[in-house]
Amino acid sequence: MIKLKTEPREHRMIPMGLSPEILLGLIVADGCAVDCGWAGVRLTSGTDGRHNPKSKHYRGDAVDMTLWSRSNDRPERGAYEPFVGRLQARLGPDYDVVLEQVGDPPTVWVHLEYDPKGR
Fold this sequence. Notes:
Helices cover 26% and strands 26% of the residues. The protein has helices at residues 20-35, 77-91, and strands at 3-4, 40-45, 62-68, 95-102, 107-114. The protein has a five-stranded mixed sheet with strand order 1-2-3-5-4, covered by helices on one side. Helix 1 links the parallel strand 1 and strand 2.
């Protein structure tokens, strides 16, 4: 099940302006998360938030997400690696799937971007 970031209130994710390709990518990502033993993905950023000025987020061609479980366990970085590999394989070369992290202890998330090559 795809969930949306809801806390803290001022950083709530509002899924507006996402491209059809990214919406398809999210559906595939959710299936990959379930295949890897998670309850689904939590969408944490889309066209909202602060990103690089040239980011595909602002065009609706990129999102950030985390994995979630029904027990609210926070996945370690290692839990994301099989998910990222499976998602990239299923989506193919027109999508970039990047595992990102920042901080100590690290906050880990997946950046999904629709970036068709050669078009």
